[in-house]
Structure formats: C-alpha cells, structure tokens
Design brief:
This protein is an all-alpha fold. It has one domain (about 1-299). It contains 13 helices and no strands.
Length: about 300
C-alpha cells in the first residue's frame, strides 16, 4: 500500500505539472524555469542530507560516469519538454511523453534481456497505432498550425527519448547506490548546465503568485522523483508503471474543466473524437503491455 500511495502522489504531481508549466511560460522563459526547478530540488535535498544524513553526500567524492550521463539526459528531458510545451498544449504533451514507458519496455527487452510475450507485443502495436492516429489527426485538425504541432511533437518525443536513457542509467545505478543519493547529483548537473542561460532579471520581477507557482514547480521535481524512487522500493515495478502511465488522465480532466469554464490564464484545448481514440489506444496499449509484462513475471 505504501508503494501504491507513493506512485499515486507521483501521478498526481505529474498530472498537474504540464498545466502549471504552460501557465509559467506566460511570464518566464523555458530555460529559466528548468534551471530554477533543478536548483530548488537540489538545494532542498542537499540541505536535508546535510542535516539528517551526511553519509548520503559521499557520492560527491567520485560520482559514477553513468550518473553524470544520467544528469545530462534528465536535463535534456526537461529542456526538450519545455520546448514542446511552448508549441502545443498540456494534454498533447502528456500523451506524447507516454512513449517513454513504451520505449523503456522495449529497451528492457534488448538491453536487460527481459522476456517479451505475445500480449506485450499486442500492447506495443496498439500503442504505436494509437500514436499514429493521434499524430495524423492532430495535424488534420489544426492545419493552420501544423508546422507548430509537428515541431512540438518531435521536441516532446526527444524528451521521451532522453527520459528513457536516464531511466536505463538509473536502473543500472540503483543496484549499488541509494536512489535519493543519486538524485542529489542528478539535480545538480542540469542546475549547473543551465545556470549561464537563466534570466535572473525575470525572476526578480515576479509577483508573489508567480513565485508561488515557481516554487510549486521546483517542489514538484523533488517530490515526484522522490516518491517514484520510494514507490519502486515498496512495491512491484509494474504496479508503479501502470499508475504513473495514467497521469495524463488527470491533465485531460483538468483541461476539460478549464475549457468549459473558459479560464483566461490558459488556452483552451478541444480534441476531436479521432484524437481521443488515438489517445485511448496509446495509453491503453502502454498499460496493457506493462500489465502483460507483470503477468509473465508472476508466472
């Protein structure tokens, strides 16, 4: 139950994340947002370790090369996701980014030699067809913004690829290291990389409400990845994957509510029936593949 609850917290945080980021983009640039999120996440975790468990900071003496590569990948994931989010809406980005778990499952077959069964293959095919339906119908629905959508799609897809590489490195590293100890380095590397490009003048002019939103984004990074690590510690990976993969549902519900009430602080999103079918196929295929994988492991 602990693991399920931690996974639910991650899913809820990520469900709100794309919407909060889209709102933040109205008053601050993507690079500064990425730098602030990583800097805040690192600072809080570092201070907690410094006070409560300094032994966790020993990893600074000789960080593994895979950890450094993982930090670069997670930084690329955040940067590419922000570029995509600038071009398309929160719901669309949340759908596209779910290609990450599918690619990770495929990577598990070829890299970690995990067995694949017929049901998993069916799930992969359904998800791939759903992605194709989703992509092509979005292009036809917004012909006047097709170039913008196409660009946003590939930015988010690159973010998913970067996340898969990070996840592969993390999966290897957790065999010999504590997950939260790894996270403190993972947050620090992008914070350093994006520091020269952060716009401090924009931060200085933020209102109280805007600062509150920025702090939420920073804490979201810290809590979501922290809870994800704890979820894997307390329960099976397939349960965590199923719960987290469903996080776009939260985004869809919130965006539908915002569209109906016509809020002024975020652009409304309207999705056609065909796009909804593609979305359901993509998410359903991903969940089915993960579930099929879990059943084969149980047997």
């Amino acid at each position: 139950m602990k693991g399920v609850l931690y996974a639910c917290v991650t899913a809820v945080l990520w469900g709100f994340l794309a919407i909060a980021l889209k709102i933040a983009l109205r008053f601050i640039d993507p690079t500064t947002i990425v730098w602030f999120r990583f800097t805040m996440a690192f600072s809080v975790l570092f201070i907690v370790f410094l006070i409560k468990n300094p032994n966790q900071l020993r990893i600074f003496k000789k960080p593994p090369i895979l950890l450094i590569l993982g930090g670069l990948c997670i930084g690329a994931n955040y940067a590419c996701f922000m570029q995509g989010l600038e071009r398309v809406g929160p719901s669309i980005t949340q759908v596209i980014i779910q290609t990450g778990p599918i690619m990770l499952a495929i990577a598990g077959i070829f890299i970690f030699k995990e067995k694949v069964n017929r049901k998993q293959v069916i799930g992969f095919v359904i998800a791939a067809l759903g992605l194709a339906v989703f992509y092509l119908n979005n292009l036809s629905d917004i012909v006047e913004h097709a170039d913008n959508f196409r660009s946003g799609f590939w930015w988010v897809f690159l973010a998913a690829v970067a996340w898969v590489l990070y996840a592969i490195f993390q999966k290897i590293l957790v065999r010999d290291h504590q997950p939260q100890s790894l996270n403190v380095i993972l947050y620090l590397i992008p914070a350093i990389i994006f520091l020269p490009f952060a716009d401090f003048s924009a931060l200085a002019n933020l209102t109280f409400g805007q600062w509150a939103l920025m702090c939420f984004l920073g804490l979201n990074t810290l809590l979501a990845y922290g809870c994800l690590a704890e979820a894997f510690k307390y329960t099976q990976a397939y349960k965590v994957s199923i719960i987290v993969t469903l996080n776009p549902t939260i985004t869809f519900i919130l965006m539908a509510i915002f569209t109906v009430v016509e809020v002024s602080w975020i652009e409304p999103e309207e999705m056609s029936l065909e796009v909804w079918i593609g979305t359901i196929m993509l998410l359903g295929g991903a969940v089915y593949s993960i579930y099929a994988s879990s059943k084969s492991k149980i047997k």
